[in-house]
Amino acid sequence: MCFEEIARELIQRREHDFAVRQQLLEAGRLYDGYCPEMEQLHRENSSRLEAIIDAIGYPTIAKVGADASNAAWLIIQHAIGRPDFMRKMLRLLRRLPAGEISPRDLAYLEDRINMYEGKPQRYGTQFDWDDDGRMAPVACDDLAAVDRRRRKLGLCPLAEQTDRFRREQDFIPDRETLARHRRQYHDWLVQTGWRRTGNRA
Q: Which of 57, 61, 60, 69 is CA-nearest to residue 9?
């Protein structure tokens, strides 16, 4: 496989992912559970990434450039219907030498997996609606430590990020919508294999 061709493909897949998300947002379907079209796209992208990794190893910055390597990470980050794949990729990324991937990518992936498994996140990168329907970071282990870790990655303080997300928030659910979202989310976590039945942590 040609690294340049792979780089172009990865970037194209990332841009298509963004385009589908925007279409769902404009159609008012983005926040109504995990849309089947989006899930199918995420599965197709992750399966293709697996084939690429089998052929050339992980698409590191040295192989495909920073932009395409970021696109590969996004495919992993969005493969939320495949817990085992995401965990396998986290183990793979942790073994890569420093400089082969963005440290931020690794932090975001670790936080996302922790969130789905019901564990506290370490970098405060994952957000969801709070009881008032406003964006808020999902549970973190220690807020002071979170900000120290964020600073090492060049990320702004968590409070500043929270304020930014709330100012940019494009949808605030009412209580009925929020309750439905949480029920669907819990059921999805169990069905997908992220959580055991009854664990709503």
A: 69
The runs of H, that is alpha helices, within the chain are 3-26, 36-56, 61-64, 66-77, 83-95, 103-117, 143-152, 158-168, 175-192
Given phi > 0 = left and psi -120 to 50 = alpha, else beta, which region is 99? left
Question: How far apart are the C-alpha atoms of 70 and 10, rounded to whole Å?
Answer: 9
Q: What is the pLDDT of residues 63-116, one digit of tens each?
A: 999 999 999 999 999 999 999 999 999 999 999 999 999 999 999 999 999 999
Supply φ then ψ for residue 129, to 5 degrees.
Answer: -70, 135
Q: What's the CA gap between 86 and 138, in Å, rounded?
A: 19
Residue 199: CB atoms within 10 A of its CB come to 12
Answer whether 61's CB lies under 8 Å from 101's CB: yes
Q: Mind listing the pLDDT tens digit for each residue in 165-197?
A: 999 998 899 999 999 999 999 999 999 999 987
Rounded Cα distance, 201 and 193, in Å: 14
Contacting residues for 90 by C-beta, under 8 A, at least 6 apart: 106, 109, 110, 113
**Which helix (H) or strand (E) covers residue 128, if one does?**
strand 127-129
Contact 155, 123 (CB under 8 A): yes
Res 198 pLDDT > 70: no
pTM here is 0.92
